[in-house]
Structures are given as structure tokens and as C-alpha cells.
């Protein structure tokens, strides 16, 4: 290649776009004079990412007013907050969606649904005035402009504090770090009690701060004491552990992350790689043929199970949140006779994009966990070994006898409800690899069309338009594999990166249904969610009244836009209109976070 005519450009740098461009030397010096930064050793940080550089580029100072909602329970965040001055309240009790500006969508009755269908507006994206909130500051509104940013405020804040249990945090205390580091939903709502100054730290900076041993130890200690036991108790395998055993497991559990948290930035590049290269590029968590040393539990993200196949690997299944890896091999090795050889791992585990895991050492698993696993939840081969090992069987049988009477019949007689994946997954290996390669495994409600049955009548699109202001939330297009089309419609992802960064929390997951919905009255039309969606399934739309007049911001005069996407027809009495309208049963909304549902659906249609 002739480089003589090449165009010379500067390679993009990590800090080309600081979190707050207004952060200056005086701000950095002031922060360095306060804890925990005053005690940090600058020599702990690389020359290319010095401590002062992290404070300048990965942090921003925020001035808060009383009643401002700083984080909302259930939101996905990518930053933590350090209280510099003032105080904030962490709500122990959950606040209602109405208090946070999110009005739950109620299902329509059949008469009301029919009335809206028959008398729908001919104007696309028509809204009633009550559905549109002005963006300017006003005394009665929930959203206000504060220091050139949109902030959401709690109504009747003093009354809420009196009626709900809460905990106050003062200067030097950190919150939000667990959600930021482990890409998990916020566990509580936090509100400013008074005029407060916070330092927001995006997760990249938080990770760099961990290079300071004292800071890292403080974060780890806080997580292990406050959150790890809670997370472990949520895992079905550990639900019957005595408290002493749980504490032993928590003390020994390793926390590991693989791949990049911002996997959506790499998605388009990696999906174009040949399959063999894509698999080879994924971080290896555990390798086939090696002795298992830990029980691996997926906390978030996805992992690919694969086996050697010729000179490459073949995908056999994928793992999502809550799945276990190495359980069968570890259990067999713990219970085998002395003369029997140990079992090695039958599959390799790799991170797909990003994978966050908990690792329980083999000896702790054998001594503190396995004796308290129900017989009905063990693979058949392992259950036979337990029968021959009375010291293990006794504890398991005692637990089983206490629980069998409480279980429905479908869970008795040896039917397991533990998310143990052994790699049997899809029989259609190529389809499985297609799903993983295109990150469709992130979808909890993916739209799949059987092209052998589809007649291209577009009744699905027309039905969607009829219930969504004349503007369908999808087009009948998308990735195709053999007879299946994976339509470009919101999948209500397991890892909804679209929710990260929304300034008002208008895009959120419904607690009961898991559907990701947009609460339009507090949507400011910034487009953050649309830009973040890796699948381009969110669109920004200008809205109008029923006569066709556009809504405009009274301050700027610019048209008001709202984020629009599939909400799974959450208000319709018959569920998703697209699936209901298909005359040939060609369309289905299906969970792809596990391999079984799609495989079973295909088996029924073959």
C-alpha cells in the first residue's frame, strides 16, 4: 500500500471528550485536597492516566437542590456519586412510579381499545396536551433546568421523607458504585436532602481509582459486607444454605469481569468477523479439558459455551444471568470414589461482549454448598453418587422433605429448576451461532418471523400502526437466517444499554412485566437512548396535536420530539398487536436470552 498520499490524522485519545469540559485546574486542586483523593498516592496511577487526569476527565461536579432525584431505583447507571458537601437521602422504602414522574400504563378495557381504534387520529404521532410537559422551568412541573442540565424533582419532598424510611449520607460517602461497576439496576432511589455538592464519577474513572489500594479495599469491603450476601442468596442453588455457610461462601467468592462493559461500541465491528475469528477474540473464562477449580455463576452479561471441533470451536449453548458453569463436573469430582478419575470441563466458556461472574472455589463448593442442594436439582449421574454417599445425602434429603410438600407437582419427582446448562441447547448449531454472533441473545422479547409461513401481507405492521398513533414501531426488515427473520423491533433487552444515561429516567423497565417503556411526559427528546441502542430500535419522532399542529418548546421555539419504540402493546388487552394480527401464525415474540425457547418453538413447527 502506498502511504505517500495517505491522509494524516491524529489518533483519537481516551480523554478527547471529558465528562465535564468546564472542569478546570482549580476544581482538580480542590478535589485533591479532600478525601479520599488527598490520601491517594499519585504513583499508583500510570503516567498516561494520572490521578489529576482522571479527576479532570472522568468526573464532574454537580450542584443539587433539595428534592432533586439523583438516581432512581431500577435505573441502569454507569456512574457513582461521592458526596462532597451537604447530604442526600437513600430511600429504604420504594417510591411509587407516580412520585418519580412515571405514570404506569394501565391496560385498556376492550370497549375503550375498540373506541380508540375506531376514532383514532389521522395524524401520525398525535398527542393530547396532557402527554406533553414543557421543558422550561416551572414551579409545578417535575422537570426543571438546573445549571444547563435537566433535573427531576420529587413533589412534596418533606412529606415523603416523613412517611418513608430513609438513610442519610454525608460528605465523604459514596453511592451508586455497585450499579456502575457491575452494570446492574440501581437498588434504591437517592434524593438530595438540601443544597448539596456531588462528584459524579463515570465507571471508567471508578475503575482507575481502584488502582489506589486503600480505595479499592474500601469498595470491596463495602460490597462484600452489604451486597454480596444479598446477591448470593438470590441464586437458587444457594437458597437453602445455613447462614454460616453463606458467610463462608461470601468470604471465599471471587469477583471477575471479562470483556468490555461498553460492548455496544464493539458490536458492529465484531459481528462482521468470521465466526472462528470472533470466537477466538472472545476472552476465555474456563477452557475445555481442564480440571474445574471454581463454580462459575453468571451475574450479568453473556457467555458462550463451545467445544473443540476440528481446528476451531463449535458453539453449543450460551449462558445468561443466573446460569451456572462447572456444576456437574465439580459435583462429580466431589462425590466420586477414590479410584475414579476426575472429570474435566466438557466445554469452554468465553465472554460474549461483557461477562461478570462470581466464582466459588471448588473446596468451598464441596463442603459448604453441595450438601444443601436438593436431590431433585442434581443431574441423574450425580444423584446416584449422592445416594452412595450418606454424609452428603442426609442433608440434601432433609431439605427435600421439608420443601417437597410446598412445591407444585411440576417441580417434584426430580424436575430441576436450577439454571444449569450442560451444552445441549440448540440442535441447530448454525442458528445458535448466528444468534450469539449478532447479540440477539440479549433480547427478552425478540420479534421472529417464520418466512416459510409469512405471505408479506404486512398485517403485522398495519396492526402496530393502528395502536401507535399511526406510526408503526417497526418495519418488517431485519437479519435473516435460513427461514427465520429477526425483525428490527425493540427486544426489551436483558442488558438494556439504552437506559444508561437517560437524564430524566423516562426510559425504564416495568417492574412487573420487564417491558422497557418510555414515559413520554418526562422524555425531553435528547436522543440519548436512540444513540445508545446497538440495534437501532429506537426512533425520535416529532409530535403533534390531533389537528396536526406540531408542539414546540416555548423557550427555544424548536419542535418537541419524543423517543418512540415498541412497548409490547403494554396497554392493549390482547397483547402485542403484531402477533395477534398475523393470519398465518408466522410471527412470535420470544425470549432469546436462553437457547431453549426458540429451539422448542422450531421443534413444534417442524
Task: Label the CATH architecture of the largest domain.
Answer: Sandwich
Give a short account of the largest sheet: 6 strands, antiparallel
Average pLDDT number: 84
Large-scale geometry? globular
Low-confidence runs: 8-12, 134-141, 402-417, 422-427
Look at the structure and name the CATH superfamily of the largest domain: Jelly Rolls
Tell me the domain tally: 3
User: Which range best describes the helical content: under 10%, 10-25%, 25-40%, 40-55%, 55-70% or over 70%?
Assistant: 25-40%
Beta-strand fraction estimate: 15-25%
Rounded to the nearest angstrom, the distance between the terminal CA atoms is 52 Å
Class of the largest domain in CATH? Mainly Beta
CATH topology grouping of the largest domain:
Jelly Rolls
User: What is the tally of helical segments?
Assistant: 20
Structural class: alpha+beta
Compute the gyration radius: what is it?
26 Å
Q: What's the total number of strands? A: 24
Region (Disordered): 396-419
Keywords: 4Fe-4S, Iron, Iron-sulfur, Metal-binding, Repeat
Domain Cyclic nucleotide-binding: 65-207, 237-337
InterPro entries: 4Fe4S_Fe-S-bd, 4Fe4S_Fe_S_CS, cNMP-bd_dom, cNMP-bd_dom_sf, RmlC-like_jellyroll, RnfB_subfamily
Amino acid at each position: 500500500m502506498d502511504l505517500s498520499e495517505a491522509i494524516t490524522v491524529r489518533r483519537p485519545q481516551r480523554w478527547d471528550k471529558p465528562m465535564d469540559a468546564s472542569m478546570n485546574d482549580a476544581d482538580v486542586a480542590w478535589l485533591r485536597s479532600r478525601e479520599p483523593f488527598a490520601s491517594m498516592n499519585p504513583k499508583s496511577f500510570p503516567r498516561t492516566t494520572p490521578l489529576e487526569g482522571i479527576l479532570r476527565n472522568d468526573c464532574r461536579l454537580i450542584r443539587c437542590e433539595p428534592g432533586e432525584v439523583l438516581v432512581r431505583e431500577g435505573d441502569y447507571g454507569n456512574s457513582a456519586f461521592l458526596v462532597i458537601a451537604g447530604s442526600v437521602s437513600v430511600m429504604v422504602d420504594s417510591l411509587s412510579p407516580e412520585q418519580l414522574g412515571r405514570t404506569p400504563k394501565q391496560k385498556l378495557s376492550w370497549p375503550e381499545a375498540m373506541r380508540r381504534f375506531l376514532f383514532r387520529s389521522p395524524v401520525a404521532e398525535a398527542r393530547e396536551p396532557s402527554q406533553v410537559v414543557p421543558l422550561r422551568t416551572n414551579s409545578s412541573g417535575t422537570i426543571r433546568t438546573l445549571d444547563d442540565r435537566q433535573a427531576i424533582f420529587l413533589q412534596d419532598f418533606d412529606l415523603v421523607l416523613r412517611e418513608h424510611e430513609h438513610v442519610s449520607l454525608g460528605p465523604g460517602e459514596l453511592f451508586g458504585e455497585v450499579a456502575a461497576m457491575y452494570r446492574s439496576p440501581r437498588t434504591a432511589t437517592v434524593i438530595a436532602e438540601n443544597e448539596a455538592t456531588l462528584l459524579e464519577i463515570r465507571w471508567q474513572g471508578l475503575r482507575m481509582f481502584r488502582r489506589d489500594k486503600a480505595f479499592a479495599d474500601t469498595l470491596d469491603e463495602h460490597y462484600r459486607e452489604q451486597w454480596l450476601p444479598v446477591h448470593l442468596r438470590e441464586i437458587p442453588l444457594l437458597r437453602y444454605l445455613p447462614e454460616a455457610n453463606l458467610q463462608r461462601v461470601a468470604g471465599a467468592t471471587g469477583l471477575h469481569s471479562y470483556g468490555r462493559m461498553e460492548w455496544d461500541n464493539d458490536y458492529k465491528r465484531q459481528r462482521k468477523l468470521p465466526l472462528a475469528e470472533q470466537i477466538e477474540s472472545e476472552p476465555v473464562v474456563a477452557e475445555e479439558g481442564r480440571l474445574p477449580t471454581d463454580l462459575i455463576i453468571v451475574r450479568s452479561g453473556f457467555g458462550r459455551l463451545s467445544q473443540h471441533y476440528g481446528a476451531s470451536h463449535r458453539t453449543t449453548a450460551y449462558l445468561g444471568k443466573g446460569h451456572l458453569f462447572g456444576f456437574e463436573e465439580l459435583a462429580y469430582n466431589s462425590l466420586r470414589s477414590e479410584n475414579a478419575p476426575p472429570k474435566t470441563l466438557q466445554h469452554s466458556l468465553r465472554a460474549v461482549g461483557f461477562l461478570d461472574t462470581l466464582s466459588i472455589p471448588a473446596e468451598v463448593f464441596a463442603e459448604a454448598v453441595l450438601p444443601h442442594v436438593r436431590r431433585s436439582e442434581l443431574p441423574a449421574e450425580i444423584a446416584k453418587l449422592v445416594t452412595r454417599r450418606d454424609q452428603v445425602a442426609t442433608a440434601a434429603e432433609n431439605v427435600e422433605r421439608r420443601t417437597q410438600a410446598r412445591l407444585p407437582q411440576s417441580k417434584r419427582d426430580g424436575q430441576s429448576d436450577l439454571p444449569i446448562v450442560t451444552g445441549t441447547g440448540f440442535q441447530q448449531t448454525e442458528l445458535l451461532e448466528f444468534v450469539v454472533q449478532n447479540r440477539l441473545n440479549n433480547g427478552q422479547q425478540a420479534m421472529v418471523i417464520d418466512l416459510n409461513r409469512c405471505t408479506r401481507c404486512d398485517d403485522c405492521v398495519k396492526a402496530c400502526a393502528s395502536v401507535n398513533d399511526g406510526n408503526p414501531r417497526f418495519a418488517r426488515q431485519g437479519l435473516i437466517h435460513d427461514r427465520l427473520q429477526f425483525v428490527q423491533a425493540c427486544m426489551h433487552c436483558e442488558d438494556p444499554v439504552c437506559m444508561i444515561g437517560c437524564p430524566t429516567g423516562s426510559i425504564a423497565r416495568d417492574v412487573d412485566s420487564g417491558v422497557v417503556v418510555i414515559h413520554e411526559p418526562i422524555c425531553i427528546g435528547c436522543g440519548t437512548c436512540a444513540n445508545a441502542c446497538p440495534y437501532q430500535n429506537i426512533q425520535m419522532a416529532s409530535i403533534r396535536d390531533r389537528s396536526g399542529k406540531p408542539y414546540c418548546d416555548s423557550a427555544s421555539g424548536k419542535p418537541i420530539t419524543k423517543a418512540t419504540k415498541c412497548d409490547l402493546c403494554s396497554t392493549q388487552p390482547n397483547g402485542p398487536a403484531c402477533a395477534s394480527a398475523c393470519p398465518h401464525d408466522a410471527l412470535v415474540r420470544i425470549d432469546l436470552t436462553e437457547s431453549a425457547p426458540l429451539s422448542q418453538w422450531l421443534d413444534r413447527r417442524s
